Amino acid sequence: MPNDSASPEPPDTKRLDILDLADQCVKCGLCIEHCPTYRHQRNEADSPRGRIALIQGWISGQIPHNKRLGAHLDGCLECRACETACPSLVRFATIMDGARAYREQTRSPIVRRAKLIRLRALASPSLAHMMAGLSALYRRLGLHRVAAGLGIQRSPLLNAYHRLTLGFVSTRGTPAIQTPGQPDVDLYLGCVSRTTQGSTLEAAHRVLMQLKLQVRICAEQTCCGAMLRHNGFPGQADEQLSRNAGAFGDRPILGIASACIAELRSHPKLRGAQELCDFLADHVGFDAVRLQPLPGDAWVHEPCSHRNQLGGNSAVFRLLQRIPELRVAPLSDNAFCCGAAGTYLISQPVLSAALLGDKIAHLRANPRRFLVTTNTGCALQLASGIREAGLDIEVCHPVDLIARQLRAPNVSRDQI
Hints:
With 416 residues, the protein is α/β, with parallel strands linked by helices. It is 51% helix and 6% strand.
């Protein structure tokens, strides 16, 4: 069992490490216009350099940690857009993760334990399956319309859960893949995606089999630990990574969620993990794959994890451009977060909704048939906003479209 009380370093050591990293920031301000929260709030304390200054003042004992300071720190998405703009290569996400971990170590064991239980529940595939069932019932009984009529939007937190039920649609479960002999690749499932993107995992399997690759799903794999790390529990996150490293060994790992792959890569033994589209676009065998035409238009959403940690999603465009008659274009403001950011859509419902609203406004003005994205949390966030807005846009993973076009010719839109 994981050691939920693990603390890899004494608090004083953590404090000095955070200050050393924070001191590398020269407060030049080149990052602030790249920060989604500063863009909305126009508050220096909600900018990267402002948050670093607050962390320095708090960790060094010059200012107290109070509710107001905590709100500025918790308002950070950790999208890492500031890191890509920083000429000094300041490791902002490491500083923020360190500050949040330091804060958890200063809290009472009861408070810390309660938060850890909530986070583990959010990362539970069984809870995701139960939530999908409840969400379907909520919609089937028309309770979403009743809630909207009663003005649920007046409560940011309740509205966040309400909106989440609109995007939380269960698909077919995780494929049971039996691999005779030695597998060529392992498929990483993630947590929520096992329920909400089961059909995408099946699509991934079909496409990989088309390339004559043997796929294995390792039963011992577990959550990547990203939610734990970004909420102040690095020790527990490292344990999750170690379990995955032991489960996968040296085998190639592919995943459909860019955030999970980015987190897996932080472990020395898992640095070869690849996002599925990146793998497919560069695979020599894909040149021989024949795809049926798909008349229509698709917006491509670029998750922050793909853009700022995995080097961008040009592979998505290269893949989708192989589908005849499909017109592909980047979604406006791809450089800015959609507001999902792991647990952010629940913990910061007001700003999360505002960031989502920017995306929905563009989609409303420029509707297309598809919106593709390579991250599970982003897919949930965007799908919920699209359904709430009453737009007829399908949110899917790029590999879903690729797999569909492997089918027999003359596939009509009604069949898709």
